[in-house]
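Async update (no meeting this week)

Hi team, since we skipped the sync, here's where things stand on the single-chain job. The sequence we agreed to prioritize is pasted below, unchanged from the tracker. I ran it this morning and attached the output directly underneath so nobody has to dig for it. Comments welcome in thread, and please keep replies under the output.
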Amino acid sequence: MRKQTKVVAVASAAALLAIGASMTSFAATGWVEEDGTWYFYDNDGNRVEDTWKKSGDNWYWLDSEEGGAMAIDKLVDDDDDTYYVDSNGVMVRNTWVRIVNEDQDEDDDPAEYHYYYMQSNGKAYKAPDSADIRFRTIDGKRYAFDDDGIMLYGWVSADGERETDEDGWAESDTLYYLGSWDDGAMKTGWQKITVHDDIEEDDMDYWFNFRSNGKKRFNEDSAEKAIDEVRINGRRYGFDERGVMTYEWTAATNNTASLASTSNWRYFNNVDDGARVTKGWFRVIAPDEDNDNTFRSNYNATFAADDADDENERWYYADGDGQVISGQIEKIKGRYYGFRPEGTATGGDRKAGAMLSGLVLMKVDPATGVILEVLDDDVDADDLDDLLDDTGTNAARALADPTISLYYFGSDELGDGSMKTGATTVTLDGDTYNFFFRRTGGIESRGKGLTGVDDNKYIYKYGCRIKADSDDKYQVVRVTPNGTAVDIHEDGVKVEKVDSRTLKTNLPTFVNDDGETVSYKDISVLHNANLRYYLVNTSGNIQKSKVAANDGDDWYFYVRDRALLLYTNNKNLDRGSTSVRENWESWCTTGVLEY
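Output:
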């Protein structure tokens, strides 16, 4: 405590000479020194006791406890007032006085000394008779005193009672903090204080914030809300009912049953910052008491159990109210990002709120852009092949539900994560795939992997271009139009890869001019207004016209005007006057094949 004076000897040599002069002048009346001790006698020759006598500019106390001797170096109680006389017996004024605390107790009163402040009239400052605490400004700082004149310190209530219970600091009426016993100055602004936290069952270093009047900020409506948010120097901070500044993941509701929702959480920076993340990104582990990343350890709930259990750091984004975005495709600084939707405490999506990255299979409401479900947030090459081949549970669901498709949010989770649109190359497990994602419209349609035929050049399924394997050379693709349209921008178009082996069963035959038996699949009869067959090569190009295009099984495809019409095991189709070769060209004359 940096007070200007602790105990001040103000009696001067001139003052002592004045006392001696009085003794000489009045002999047995007035001041008399006896065996080195000063007394004061009245006109009747009696010693004066329990009163003040002035000599020169100084006042002295005649102490009845010492037979009327002039008091030295002690506190003096005169009626309801307390004074102090120094080692020369002089009443001290306008100064601090330090007295050994003979009742020092580590639990209730650990102060080694008690401090008093003596005013210009020598009286110690004391608590007022009212129930409210009163502060006195001394040397630019504010102090409070109890009804004995002892300077208060530590945690103090609104009525001026020093809180001695180790958990008493947390009470709503404990408003002030006055520092350590050798300090005592009222604290304002930010203060880091060590307290015993009954919830954590340990001593903790917490940040508090005190207003200019010294009162701590705290949540005064804990029945309605879990924390009180306050704007300080342009940033928002949260305080609980005890006044502790919240930090990291903090519940914004008292209803723990609803903590499976991101809407009931707020993220504040670390314990030495504490500012709420508002309209911005942050990368952390989802709340979990075992990870020490929550303000309290007794929440017993989270909105992202899987990520919390695995301690996966994820990118999250908070809006202007500090609410974590989830289940949305959100435009942020000109780019679009996806955030996982909420599930339940025991099932569903247990990674809620996390920014999506990589190739993602998900269900999106076409009217609102709300992400209804993430079926796979880490689609790899095998997963993609299953989707394209209509194999597995996810493929079956996607095949039956046009609101399910692939989206791509970049390959760099740490550095990007923004939605990709248009023609995009994606590398999965060392293999390169060509995609086309919708690049127009709002959040309800942008980024969706398109299905259908693109300008009669390529065929896409969930955004991935259909290609033939290098060994197969060609791939048969069946397209079911939406009405008569097969364009990728038409919702409802269906694309299926056709294994050429399925075309080789129960085939008709004929004998060609060479005497060879020829098996053939008349695909032209399969075409109609609602079904079309195409042939693509290893680059994914739709074949416009092919005669006896040899595949990996040494069978032959015949294509005209991009319509796959015939599949045979022999390219010699001549058989005299009734040639299949002559006939296949005529099969494209029907109107449905002119596309």
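Quick observations from my side:
Residues 1-27, 587-595 have pLDDT under 50 and may be disordered.
The chain has five helices and 39 strands.
Reply here if anything looks off.
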